[in-house]
Amino acid sequence: MSARRGEPGAASFRSRLTARLSDLPVGLQVKLLVAIIGLVALGIVLTSALAETRSILEAGALALAVAVGLGLVIARRLTAPLRLMRAAALRMARGSYGERVPVASRDELGELASALNALAASLERAETLRQTMVADLAHELRTPLATIRATVEALRDGIMEPTPATLTALSDETLRISRLVGDLQELALLEAGRLTIDARPVDLGRVLERVLAVREPDLAAKKLRVDRAVPPGGAWVVADPDRATQILHNLLDNALKYTPEGGRIAVEMWIEEGLLFTRVSDTGPGIDPGELPLVFERFYRSDKARSRGTGGVGLGLTITRKLVEAHGGTIVARSRPGRGTAFIFSLPVAPPLAAAELPAAGPRWPPRHEVRTGRPDAASRP
Fold first, then answer.
1. What is the pLDDT of residues 70-107, one digit of tens each?
2. What are the sequence ranges of the domains in the chain?
3. Phi then psi for 108, rounded to 5 degrees?
4. What CATH code is assigned to 200-370?
5. Domain 108-192, CATH class in plain words
6. What would the pLDDT profile of 168-216 be if each residue is shown by its tens digit?
7. Which of 45, 178, 225, 251 shows a CA-CA span of 20 to 30 A to 161?
8. At what angle do helices 2-23 and 54-93 cross, to 10 degrees?
9. How far apart are CA 343 and CA 156, in angstroms?
10. Separation of alpha carbons 257 and 281, rounded Å
């Protein structure tokens, strides 16, 4: 009976000991385990050397049993989270990217668990984008191909006449496919670092005027007002003229699509610390804060209902970011739902302007109080 009454006390002692050991940092637990093993080894040596009586042998056996027990407890404590992380990693390798492991401590194992969870979240997001990409590509290719096939069959069967309007419609659909394939090819070259950039001094203000002249019919059709502000000495940057045109075209195209009829688009340029910053803002519906970090992802569209004819397949902003970064610049997006969206990118100022024409000190251009965009974050700068 006394032995049975002692069993709960022993179990309680073991649980308290395990809890105390669990609270220790992993590094300290390892050191404790090494110390215990060392003590056991020393005890065995001493016991063997001084084994003169039966009691010494029994004490050595007891010390060995205690050391083995503590070692098993610590080893299980150390390996349990590692086994969980290994199992989760194997499931992720099989495509289960929703796996997460509990972060039970702030030591090295806790940091490893957090890193594994971050990796799983990144893989899950990439898989979602990949599935969306496949669906979007299938849709974007299926629609024009179906139109072309139906038109060609109608022409073959004599149902339709090969009028200029019919041939123009066929040409538009083939151009639609060509643009999609061209966007994909350009993005692949940018991501591989193989796109040629012919950088030279370029006046970005003049590039803007040419882009606006090309888009004038579209702007007039929606009755949009375009306000622009360019530094008095010009907006000279080091850039590839064709790529600079493409950057502005993509950003203005995005603003044009999302700005309602009668709205306003503003393009402002200013020089700061050897960089030319360009801000393209609109008075559109804005972007939800949760989706704002995704606007530069491939095949992302804030309005999932848009087709390529109205909203594109979701490659324009991705290509724009890659082009800006290929020139050594940066680009950010800022938005508030219902208050419009702004894209701000920077490019290196052309050396002659940076060295000779920029004032060494004085007010920034344009002064912050002169920037009027109708947006609450208009005065913020990157």
1. 777 666 666 777 778 888 888 888 888 788 888 877 77
2. 2-93, 108-192, 200-370
3. -60, -40
4. 3.30.565.10
5. mainly alpha
6. 888 878 877 787 777 777 777 777 777 788 889 999 999 999 999 988 9
7. 178
8. 50
9. 49
10. 12
